[in-house]
Amino acid sequence: MAKVLVVDDEPGMRRILTVNLRRDSHVVVEATGANEAVALLGREDFDVVVTDHKMPDGSGLDVLRAVQDDDPTTSVIFLTAVGTLELAVESMRQGAFDFITKPFIPDVVRAAIRRASQHTALLRENAVLKKEMRKLEGADEILGHCTEIRAVRDIVARVAGTTSSVLITGETGTGKELVARAIHRNSLRAHKPFIAINCAALTETLLESELFGHERGAFTGADKARGGLFEAAHEGTLFLDEVAEMSAAAQAKLLRVLASGEIQRVGSTATRKVDVRVLAATHRDLQERIREGLFREDLYYRLAVVPLHLPSLRERGDDVGELCASICLRIAEEMKVPSRPISAEALAKLKTYAFPGNIRELRNLLERALILGQQAELQPEDFHLQTPGAPLRSPDGELTVEQLAALLPKRLDLREVMARFERALLERALEMTNGVQAEAARHLEISRSDLGYKVGKYALSAVPRANAD
Ligand SMILES: Nc1ncnc2c1ncn2[C@@H]1O[C@H](COP(=O)(O)OP(=O)(O)OP(=O)(O)O)[C@@H](O)[C@H]1O
Ligand SMILES: [Mg+2]
User: What is the pTM of this model?
Assistant: First the structure.
């Protein structure tokens, strides 16, 4: 069912059209000439317009132009007298959807209207999708105008077209993943997969089989052969997030893949060629990890062909105001709440804040303020900042050490508390890693031998060990 505007100066013609179209349950509005049609188009929305060519007060082309100004997704069908084929061709050239010669066969008209209304529906759907896409793309834009972030955007634009690996560093919430996605989106690989993996979230063996895949029977539970992420990202981009957390063995394998461009599934000796662009990110200082022997220097140079450091929000001074305004608009759009400007006082308060969680934290603060604030502008009291001396929660929501300390009894023996705390942490790390000491040491960021010493000191050898190492 469509809403159709019928434009003709002959009442008989209008009546036949209307009767026929109503048989298909279309809603029909009639106009007696070009002027009335143009006026109606300005007031109402139509799916299809059927218009005569020559009318005393104007032509069908005038109606077509009005449609194109008003809503170009409306489909226009011309009625032309036999012998005016040139006019019909001209109207199609100018964007009409179809033409019908008079006298017409009712079924032909009805079929033409059906096709035209389907065409309109498709155009409108397409317009909605395009708008959504633009919104999504806009949501991924790297915002900010300070010198540092401009340099970041500049490097993103310059490396995007290459296949160089980029190592993105920066504190939590500074936009490392956002930048990785922007590089992919602006590259020649944009229409191929972008695959992200968090290297910290998987154990050593799982990470290897995730990255490189495995053959059937390669380990217990591997009942089917499976390709890894390198294969899935073929011709696209693989984003290795938290790359500093990779085990020594995984680092060695990754290096081999990057050097040869070939992968070997776990449990297989066959090699497969892969064409993958690797982007990596870490919030850690990799140079320091190298000095401590925790990260391979040769791998670092493979990953950091282009190193890209993202500034913390503290270093971005004047950007805070612009970020607040743009992020408020995005949040308002996403959450379907009205956006509100931020007051000068509230902005001044934010500008003196340290933002340990950087832009992610700013976004969360603004979201809460927009939802809970009561006034026309966002006020200082709408922002509950962690005061530097007494943080309540770390940016990712975990208890901070300060908060833990506040929970302890007032009178305590420092040495005893520290020892018990250390023991509890060691137990937790060993539990998390099923007693695998190498992994527990990595979690705790201490050396393997240091952990061995502490395990002996606290007599922790009784910890259950599913996978003794
Ligand atoms: N320059 C920026 N412009 C707009 N939004 C940003 C910018 N930087 C970060 N954001 C937003 O901040 C949030 C955190 O960004 P992202 O996840 O990329 O950070 P990250 O550096 O990967 O953090 P983590 O180390 O915790 O994983 C996202 O919502 C992102 O859209
Ligand atoms: Mg991230």
Answer: 0.61
